[in-house]
Amino acid sequence: MSGSSSSTASTPSGMPLSALPVQPQPAPADLVFGIFNGQGQFVPQSAIWAGAVSKTGDSLSGLLSCALVPTDAAHLVNKAYVDAQSGQVNSTVSTLVTQAQDAATQAQTAFSQAAGAATAVIAEQKGIPNGLATLSADGHLVLGGLDCLGVQNGHVLMAMDLPTTDPEMRGVWWNNGGYLCISQGTSS
């Protein structure tokens, strides 16, 4: 075959089809030519897109599925992806809650042990030379379980009542109605 022939499809008026203006969005009543069920035919544009979901808002009457994993925050995801993510979040939260509970238990145990150790140390120091002396709730020195001495306005005071008669025990203090006396003990 020699040479080539080229023909350009044209409208009945002779205008080439390629010169026709392009319609970016055909109207629903416009006809579209295509091969459908093995035959060339004109079909209304609305019939071609029947069942399609409109980008400007629509509703579905059936199920929509997609197996793609999103790569952008604005991508839609399927239920399996959401379930997997929530499972991971639940697992992480559960792990963190367990760790927090364990830490709280360990802190409570450490607190109890420290309090017990402090109580034991104090108890061992009471009543021994160079040990600890206890103060009462009023801030008085406690000796032998009795409030003995205190301080008020810079003065030392006896926090306990003294006997009003000589107890006849050497070195014991007693009150003689306005005087502080020290007993010499019995003469015998």
Q: Tally the helices.
A: 2
Which strand order do you get reading across the main beta sheet?
3-4-5-6
Order of helices and strands: EEHHEEEEEE
Strand percentage: 15-25%
What fraction, in percent, of the residue positions are helical?
25-40%
Q: Whole-number average pLDDT?
A: 83
Radius of gyration: 51 Å
Major β-sheet, in short?
4 strands, antiparallel
Intertermini distance:
159 Å
Coarse structural class: alpha+beta
| Number of E strands | 8
**Can you tell me the residue ranges where pLDDT is under 50 for at least 5 consecutive residues?**
none
Q: Which outline best applies?
A: rod-shaped
How would you describe this structure to a colleague?
The chain has 188 residues and is an alpha+beta fold. It has helices at 45-48, 79-125; strands at 31-36, 39-44, 134-135, 141-143, 146-152, 155-158, 173-175, 180-182. The protein has a four-stranded antiparallel β-sheet with strand order 3-4-5-6, with no helix packed on it. A two-stranded antiparallel ribbon has the order 1-2. A two-stranded antiparallel sheet has the order 7-8. It is rod-shaped, with a radius of gyration of 51 Å. The termini are far apart. The model has no long low-confidence stretch (mean pLDDT 83).
